[in-house]
Amino acid sequence: MLAERAAVDTAVRSRWSEQFCRALLSFDQLRDCQTIMAFYPFREELDIRAFLERARERGKEIWLPLTLQAERKIVPYVYTGPAMLKQGAYGIWEPDPDQAVAGHLPDLDAVLVPGVAFDPYGGRMGYGAGYYDRFLSSLSRRPLLIGCSFELQVIPQVPMEPHDIPLDYLATETGIRPRIRTE
């Protein structure tokens, strides 16, 4: 899946990212959220920087995760712009704790979740370390969970483990759709 995503032409990936950001910015359920944890694009992931900036312009509080490898967890920090980022774990641009304020977890309304593969049932295959599942399971209340990917990353079914937390929506360059519930 990663090789397939990497093979997409840069101009096409850019166009798809723009379409994705437009869809996300017009998504009513997300528009009602004040505090949104997102991610900073890495390698060939969706480039959601336009969403980050527009959401901030609209008065939303955007958080980005800092990966603490030794503790195997992520800690969100308030995003104030690219100047507060540093290259961190795995080469990902992350908040510099010396320049950022940690997010107040009870305020979290929504999480934009990146990954390798997604399915229509809320399944997500991450990068293998379990950071997001541990983070989400540590929260006192469940925020709105939106999987973020290119349509080519959507497969019929992602293998799910009991500890995996299903997403509420899947957002791609083709639009946003709710998960298909099987229960």
TrEMBL record:
InterPro entries: FTHF_cligase, FTHF_cligase-like_sf, NagB/RpiA_transferase-like. Keywords: ATP-binding, Ligase, Magnesium, Metal-binding, Nucleotide-binding. Belongs to the 5-formyltetrahydrofolate cyclo-ligase family. Its EC number is 6.3.3.2. Its cofactor is Mg(2+). It comes from the Bacteria. It catalyses: (6S)-5-formyl-5,6,7,8-tetrahydrofolate + ATP = (6R)-5,10-methenyltetrahydrofolate + ADP + phosphate. One of its GO terms (molecular function) is 5-formyltetrahydrofolate cyclo-ligase activity. This is 5-formyltetrahydrofolate cyclo-ligase. The lineage of its organism: Bacteria, Bacillati, Bacillota, Bacilli, Bacillales.
